Amino acid sequence: MNMFRFIIFTATLIASAAAAPAKLDQRQAPAGVPDYVLKYAPLVWLHSAEQYFPSDLQSQLSNTIPRVNFNAVAAPNPLNLTNLNALGADVYLTSKDDITTNPQWIKGVKPDGAAKTQNAITAAVIVNDKGNGNVDAFYMYFYAYNWGGEVLGIDQLQFGNHVGDWEHNMIRFESGTPTYIWYSQHANGQAFKYTSVLKDGLRPLAFSSNGSHANYAIPGTHDHTIPNFNLPGGVLEDHTDKGALWDPLLAAYYYAYDAGANRFAAYGGDATPVEWLYFRGRWGDQEYPTSDKRQIKLFGQAKYSSGPTGPIDKQLNRSNVCPDNGNKCILRTILVPKRAGDEVVEGL
Ligand SMILES: *[C@@H]1O[C@H](CO)[C@@H](O)[C@H](O)[C@H]1NC(C)=O
Ligand SMILES: *[C@@H]1O[C@H](CO)[C@@H](O)[C@H](O)[C@H]1NC(C)=O
Ligand SMILES: *[C@@H]1O[C@H](CO)[C@@H](O)[C@H](O)[C@H]1NC(C)=O
């Protein structure tokens, strides 16, 4: 990093450390969820300019129709979280509205003053107990829409917008003690030692970037290179800061995951829907063809790309803290901003 960036970075860290942390202790978790999974759960700072907040899972189903290759397919009606698993892996939950009209439902629910998304289940906590005290807890965050950002801040050079957005933190525990935390960022992410990250009490802080919701360990500006397109750093950036605080635990479903059987079980009994977790299709529209007037493709990158797969596709039984994606897994012990040079080792 250059000196200017270093000064900004240092100042940001000092400012974050000085800000009085909110004390958030109230949790709505069913019986049986390991206490440490709650006690050390991340808190998420959304960006101050965020337009696309965390969103209710059922709302995504209510506002989309299942399509394969852009054609509607037979599906349970109404679609809900207990019948979603009837759909195949080739299905795209496709917006009923033209998303370029920015319909209200894609904007999600801004957390209230108590950091809760009211009347919206916006997160899923998935606990993988591997035995011998080794537990990975996944904190899955759902947003109805991903605004991809602008190259060089130019409105016409926008890409990577998509309907549906799943992001996550994963905390690795050893006998109830948090050791490492993973922050998902686009196709990859960053791993840090638990003791290294910023916290509110025991709870690590995640900073969700404006629009794209990539999770960073610090506020500031983060380079985000374009896959297969070697642009200089800083051309496309993620921005994080302390806008609205979101406590995902306050409106979440909680599950245990059995990797051997590839099964999920809800904590809290039958009131919690489980079937949706087996849906292997996409939570948003399929990438529009260039014949669609909404679409622009530049150097192979689409303005509107396909929606993501759900939690079952996030390597819930990974052996490293990082998912296995061909990139080196660096377990960082110091907080550093994401810079273009990082891509040399981490890829994207
Ligand atoms: C934040 O995202 C919105 C679109 O969702 C965009 O209009 C705005 O310019 C972005 N601001 C920053 C600081 O990134
Ligand atoms: C979902 O719809 C099915 C019918 O397809 C119904 O039996 C079930 O109760 C509904 N589940 C919820 C959570 O509303
Ligand atoms: C899950 O991960 C553990 C530890 O990495 C491994 O021993 C086990 O075989 C994995 N289970 C499955 C079903 O892949």
Automatic annotation (TrEMBL):
Transmembrane segments: none annotated. Residues 1-19 form the signal peptide. This is Vacuolar protein sorting-associated protein 62. InterPro entries: Vps62. Pfam families: Vps62. Keywords: Signal.
